[in-house]
Target: Flavodoxin
Amino acid sequence: MKSTIVIYGSSTGTCQSIAETIAAKLGASAVDVTSIDEAAISDHDNLILGTSTWGAGELQDDWYDGINLLKSAGLSGKTVALFGCGDAESYPDTFCGGMKELYDAAKEAGANVLEGVSTEGYTFDDSDAVVDGKFVGLSLDDVNEDDKTEERIDAWLEAIKPSL
Model:
């Protein structure tokens, strides 16, 4: 596996905990988006980006500056994988929608964004993060389906590891 970093934005600690789990399973470091600079991005071949989704599908607050950093750093030649945290029971029509903003920014910056996860097995009404029938990354509802989190992370990592 090439040099990989897990970058997350977290307001309540859920996304941070998931980022740390992913990083530990990959042997990578997990870093809050507020601590990232252009050098940290350029030093890694693979970026795993994670966000929670708030309100009507908004990206986690710290990512707004982070998105500008991603775009200015240029991601050509980099591989990006995405994960998002949401609450499908309370926000079934915007579940993990914040991931779409990360997806769009990474694509715009020239990254090779890895294929997402099937919506099969998830219960939600709608999400901006669904493109061509799949989530743009790994979607997790650690609030209502925490019993599925570990299994979903493991399956996703097995799917993306060959590309990292």
Q: What stands out?
A: The chain has five helices and nine strands. Strands lie at 4-8, 29-32, 46-54, 58-59, 79-85, 112-113, 130-131, 134-135, 138-140.
